[in-house]
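User: I'm designing a mutation panel for Malto-oligosyltrehalose trehalohydrolase and want to avoid disrupting the core. Could you give me a predicted structure to guide residue selection? Please restate the sequence first so the numbering is unambiguous.

Assistant: Good idea. Sequence first, for numbering, then the predicted structure tokens:
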Amino acid sequence: MFTVWAPEAERVRVRVDGADHAMTAATGGWWRADVTGTDYAFLLGDDEKPLPDPRSLRQPHGVHEASRVYDHSAFAWTDSGWTGRPLPGGVVYELHLGTFTGGGTFDSAIERLGHLVDLGITHVELLPVNSFDGTAGWGYDGVLWGAVHEPYGGPDGLKRFVDACHARGLAVVLDVVYNHLGPSGAYLDRFGPYFAGATDWGAGLNLDGPGSDEVRRYVIDNALGWLRDFHADGLRLDAVHALVDKRATHLLEELAAEVEELSAAVRRPLTLIAESDQNDPKLVTTREGGGYGLGAQWSDDLHHALHVRLTGETTGYYTDFAAPGALPKTLREVFFHNGTWSSFRERTHGRPLDTRKALGHRFLAYLQNHDQIGNRATGDRLSATVSPGKLACGAAVVFCSPYTPMVFMGEEWAASTPWQFFASFPDPVLAEAVRTGRRREFGRHGWGEADVPDPMDPATVARSRLDWAEPGREGHREMLELYRTLIRLRRERPELADPRLAGLVVEAAPDDSWLVLHRGALRLACNFGAEEVTVPLGGTADEVLLTWGAPGPDLAGQAAVRLPGESFALVSTGP
């Protein structure tokens, strides 16, 4: 049986294994045909161009070609004993499947899961793996959301990866994009009123206009499919601020309710993590409390405050975070902009978070992520310009904060490989438009256009792949051990993972050159500056847990610590 929603069509046929069959109109704009076969595509009206299924589960020959029938029940899962992992207390690892390993497939990524287990990771977040045009890309230009990108290994490859993760105690979060479709292969509007308006990245969805009931169902069914049929443990929802929905019940709230029902049915925690630039606590406020009820959201403000402190960059959206007190305020309140003036936006921005009730594990903290690296002109990581001491201080703040830490692949060993923007659109006109547009964009910001890597050049992808020989080399080995230790201490010392924000104490120099983060009886003292400073601990040190570039056990008994430039000390204090 083949079905498709095409409410405005007067005639629909399905081409199955080369033969055309008339479809019968059913209720609600749906069409059906009781036919069997393997490869299929739809023909609308008198148009002879076959189109792939909007709800396709497999695209073996790319997003412009016929869909293929896929049977979820045929896969032999081995994770029946998997009960999931809650996000509180976890550590997330963000990776891009195509550049995580030299092979760039699910199977080659499985071979590196031992590294993540040894590091102490609990949740693996995959950048989008749905079908997009071309072979290489970030995945955010997807157009067939239910089909797994074939060059990565297709749907069975993803299932093998999830199964392998679960066998090693790792939860899997999939990055999904519901705010727009990519520029090549987006045929949804041929079938019905799927589109409404546009975003900066492509066509947006009709979530609240005529015909939007089925469009919303399309999104929610896709999300539930990843969690139910592919056994994913959560979804990271890309740029939810670009979802235009004026209904009384927002799509995100509706989605959260249905995911909660599914979680009860499959008897394991399922987490929705949003990316939003609105600084609105409504996203992670419970539905009973008038919010949308999502599990967590990214904390860009903390990233920006840390980035300015470590690099000194103050251009673009970093301008606001050069203000004295930006880092301690963001650590205490999550949002730096919480109803305050943003010079970058030239307006007030954000809404205060009630730290008396909010829990820190609902916000992901990170030094780097795919956006903050890949959307720089040359895709340079912090390790390209920031000293190991400052990197160590930044990592210590993230892992000792009350928030859920997230690591971008390779960050844990200060990878020297960049992570650059790349795509591989076969259409030469589109490819040139992307290439030219990116160079002009950065040219306006002071970069020489020749310095911006060609996103269509396979060499750009090759440069962005991790070098797995690096973790054992000097300069990388030490950073990797620091990350392992920080994650271990966060697991062993409950104070470090305590998500309560009420009463969180952060002391800092007037210029933020040093800070002390109080975590119960523990103190993290960081000196970001180049000069030695003496930092009060707010107690007497009785045990030294970890240092970088700072005095070791001889800190015991001291009420203050002398920190050389670019160093930190994590100590336990007595009364």
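For picking mutation sites, this is relevant: The chain is about 25% helix and 20% strand. The longest helix spans residues 212-229.
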